[in-house]
Design a protein that fits this description.
2 copies of one chain form a homodimer. Chain A has 236 residues and is of the alpha/beta class. Helix content of chain A is 35%, strand content 21%.
């Protein structure tokens, strides 16, 4: 029997697990001793939250980030081939989305190893369903272009497509650039365009608001340095 | 104080909740007595699974499906304005994606009512992270066109875009048409194109496989009448 590669969801920054992880996800994850992790500290913190007695020191953590070369992951593939389960833990949310976890998943598929994604919080999904926009067709674009000119072109493309086809467009930026994104949205988009901003998802001060750009101009609030998802779409 | 509109995730067809729902999601949901539901039977079944003693008979269920007119939802908005919480339950998975739940969410936003999406299973998200394809940029297309000619055009567009830009394309069809979709994929796409099929997600016989179209031709399996997600993408 071969091991399974489990995709373990991390918190979105909150302190409690009971609102974001099913009990079986916790039970499965704390039985694993070999991990690929995006960031060591947040992975250990998650495991300690799952189980205060989790044996961090006798477990193996391989860092999996932009700088990781494939060969350093072969060790984990070898464990899987020997029948040992391996977990991937992202810095926040579900592994494999906007982080480098997908590399190891692809290697597992090449070797015919079973991949098991566990249920947990995804800011993309929570923002989408919380927005009231169409979930029939949507695109996640990841991070916006850094150049202001390119960023504005993207936003205008999303707006046009959403108006014409009702397609929902989801995007984000690094938290310290949120206010620039908001400025661009409010300055460049048309009055009636509908915009949703979902910030601090799953946290106590979670906020999900969908309004026209016109209304946002009068009711914008501070998004500096907090995690936020932006959505342009059409209410159903 | 106004009520909150909770988006309550349903199972993807499985019998147990401990692998798909956090305990707090169960606790929050079973305190609610007013619901908008896509399908009565599956909503009641979920609530009884959450709590065997759930007072179905003294709770209110408003059907929310393609035939629902907005006025019949005003009753629920009134409850929210009075300070009473309301839940939306889809037939399967998260409300608001490929179902009509988004209408009520949009109405709530118009009234400035707080919307709270709860964490649970989403086949789109589980399939995406389980595929090993890029999660940096992806599109969910919903159901494929029914006309074979249009369907094949869509599939070829996904293939071309994914080869050129590494964008992941996710789509589905009604389970009884799965084998036709699979035929089209294997007949019309190029040998090296990577295809993931994720079926029976979160169930005991869950299967997630990513292979080239060439390999799929030799290793296809029966997908008739089981829920499946299809993905065309590029392994990282």
């Amino acid at each position: 029997m071969r091991g399974k590669l489990y995709l373990i969801p991390n918190t979105l920054g909150g302190e409690t697990l009971s609102n974001i992880l099913p009990q079986e996800v916790i039970d499965t994850s704390t039985k694993i001793r070999f991990f690929a992790v995006e960031e060591l500290r947040s992975a250990r913190r998650l495991l300690r939250k799952m189980d205060r007695e989790f044996p961090i020191d006798s477990s193996t953590f391989i860092e999996l980030n932009k700088r990781t070369e494939k060969p350093s992951l072969y060790f984990l593939i070898q464990q899987l081939k020997k029948g040992i389960d391996v977990g991937i833990i992202s810095e926040a949310g579900c592994p494999g989305i906007a982080d480098p976890g997908a590399v190891l998943v692809a290697m597992a598929h090449e070797e015919g190893i079973e991949v098991s994604p566990l249920v947990g919080p995804s800011s993309i999904l929570l923002a989408l369903i919380g927005s009231g926009f169409s979930g029939q067709k949507f695109t996640f674009h990841g991070y916006l272009p850094k150049e202001r000119k390119d960023r504005i072109k993207s936003l205008k493309d999303f707006e046009a497509d959403s108006r014409r086809h009702g397609h929902t467009h989801i995007f984000m930026d690094t938290p310290f650039r949120n206010m620039n994104v908001l400025d661009d949205l409010l300055n460049e988009l048309a009055d009636p365009t509908e915009l949703c901003i979902a910030s601090n998802l799953t946290l106590l001060d979670q906020r999900i608001r969908t309004m026209s750009v016109k209304n946002w101009r009068e009711n914008a609030y501070d998004l500096a340095k907090i995690p936020a998802m932006f959505l342009i779409g059409k209410s159903e």
